[in-house]
Structure formats: structure tokens, C-alpha cells
């Protein structure tokens, strides 16, 4: 993996008492950024920890020394150093004077996207998600070079803050043959995106940091015109994107739908549900959690539908080992927590706290691997075996939301599904299941166990769920 960082050009803009310690630092190749704030000591940030570079506090003259050696700041308070990938961001006071600088080191890392090379060859639009500083811009810079040079595509980069292709009129060599369109003001990025399609006939458009509704709408328009998109957005995962009203249109948008009685009964859901409004502008989503660990969603539309329906999704985890070998694993999301914790059901469904429980009822509570029966007279404890996986239950003519309420209350590793093909167990009313020969036949063919209750009471539901978990409350 080849790295080009032009670090000396960034150090040249710093005063001597900041530059000299960095030039001699043993970890200078891992430097992330240098922070310079008025009246404070200069600070260097590395992946493992920050370090002070001097005992002296910064003065106005020190800040002025740096500002005179960099380009002018744009509307987003960012500037650069010509022919480099470094980014300098400023902090201003109320009068508009600069009182702080963040000097981010820009690096071109060749070979960083070998882990997703096969996805580029599919010619589908790709959305990259991750928190700030995780390496999204570095990834799309390398993607632009691979698409333009090795796959011979017509690539146009929409470079809002000159962070992808560097400062100045001549793009940095790290983007290869790809062309770069600069944006005069950040709020005009969506217009430049449409202009690129209309005027320059691209096959691929690269967009960094999609952050507004107008930009999301422009991305959707570009996708509808048949142009491949590669974009980045802030967010840890697809689930966080769904909850972001500004960017949810990138994955098709969300709408509330009211179902008829029969359809709601068939699905085993409430009458008012959330559904995806339209097709996603991106077919593939990549979550970057660190530089060697990426989570891939190869069918974004399917994943969004599963998340909205409350299903646990499959995640394709790709990582690079120390030997430069690429490893691909396909696992259920939060599977490691599922095996280790009885609280797994809350973790995947994002329930913040269990619902309240009526203490007058004789119900069981969980503590680690133990069942404790509440009783006004005594307290009895029963051990139960640790579950190695989540149990999927199909409810027949039983309100699934009531089951979910108690599952969440007790933090049981059970998932209620309205699709019988996904279920391990059927739970239903005894009188109705006796009459449904088709359901019993399906259960026999799929070797599924059937648990029945006589009525819809909460006590009956809790006791059935306990039986399913092979947990028996100790009788007095």
C-alpha cells in the first residue's frame, strides 16, 4: 500500500517552534492533524493520542504567520495548500477574525479499496458512510482513480472544498484522469452536480459529504438519468441514515402507510406502518468503521425494507488482515452480542429501556443466566441454559406487538416475525390452530414446533414465551 502525503508542505506553513518537534517526531507519518488555537498550546493529534508540541501559548502573530502561507478561506471556512491534499479549517470569533486553525493532513493511499474492487466492476452507485476522519474522502479519491485510469470511465468529481483533488487549479495526480469541477460556494453544490451531468457527459460522478436536502435531491435526479454515483455522507450505519430527515431521500425516503384490516392481520403488524417511498439512489452502501473493517450492503433497497419491518439484517463484513489478505464474513447484525448477552433483542431493535412491569403479577425477571420469580412471600431462583442464538417466532392470530412488549420488558432473545419461512416456532391460539390443517402441515414439513395458548391474556403469553425458552417458573 503506497502512501503519498506531502507532509513537508504542511509543516512549512507552521512556526518553527511547532514545525521542529513534528519533523523529529517518530510517528510523524501517522499524524492526523495539527490544532492551533489562540492563547493555547499547539497540539498534534495521532491515532492513539494527542500530544502538545510546545510549552508556549499561541499569539496573534503566530496565527498570522500561518494564515499568510495558505490560500484564502471559502464560504465553508476551509482553505488548502496548492498542489497538496491538505485541508486547513478555521474558527472565527464574532467579529470574523480567525482565532483557531485545524490543519488536517491529506494523504493519497493507493491500494486502499482493494477490498471492494469487485463492487466497482458492477457499475452500481455506491454510498459510503462513516464518522468524520474515518477515511471516506481517501476512499473515494482512490475510487475515482481506479474508475478513470483502470476501468476507462468518464469520471467527474464535484469538489466542494478542494479536499478530493487538492487546492489550486490543477488537480492532484492522485485522482488520475478523472476531471474535477470546483464549487464556488458550498450551497451551490447541488447546482454543480446537475451541471456536470448536463454539460460534461460523465459516466460516473463523485460527490463528497452529501449533507443537505437539495444535494440529496440532486443525487436522486442524477441516478434517475442513468449516471453511476459514488458519494459519502456522515453516519455510522444505514439505520442512522433512515433516522436523518435530511438524508433519508438518498435511500428512497420513508412514508407512513395505513393498511386494511385483512392486510394488517396477514402481516401481523399495526395498521399504520412505515415503508420505503421509492427506489434508493444508491444500490450499494458501505459502512467504514475503521480503515481495515468495512461492512457492505449489496442491496440497499432490501436492507432498508428489512430495517423498517424490524427484521435483523445480514451484514457482509470485509476486513484486511496483516498479511494483506482480504477476508469476507456474512453474519447477522449484532451477532456477537446475541451470543454473549441476553439483552441482544434490545440491542438490535434499539429499545432504550424495558417497559414497565406490573409488580403484582407473578412473572419472571432475568439477571444474567438466572430466572428470579417475584413473590410476596419468598424468592426462588431457577437456572436456565445460555442461548446461542436468537429464536424467531411466528404468531398466529396473536397480537405481535403485545408479544414484543413482554419480550422487550424481560430482555428475551426472541424476534417476532410475520413471515413463517423465517420462523423457528409457531405460537397461536389453540382453538384456531386446531382448525388450520394447512398451518399444521407447514409446521410438519419444516419441522417447526407449535406452542398454543387458550386466550390472549398477558399471563398466557408470558408463560408460552417461557416455555419456548425452556424456562419454568418454580412453583410454591
UniProtKB/TrEMBL annotation:
Keyword flag Cell membrane: no
Pfam family, one: PTPase
Record-level Gene Ontology MF annotations: ATP binding
Residue intervals of the AAA+ ATPase domain: 122-278
UniProt-listed Gene3D superfamilies: P-loop containing nucleotide triphosphate hydrolases
UniProt superkingdom: Eukaryota
InterPro entries named in the record: AAA+_ATPase (IPR003593), P-loop_NTPase (IPR027417), PTPase_dom (IPR058670), Spore_III_AA_AAA+_ATPase (IPR045735)
UniProtKB keywords: ATP-binding, Chloroplast, Nucleotide-binding, Plastid
Stated name of the protein: Conserved hypothetical plastid protein
Organism, as annotated: Bangiopsis subsimplex
Organism classification: Eukaryota, Rhodophyta, Stylonematophyceae, Stylonematales, Stylonemataceae
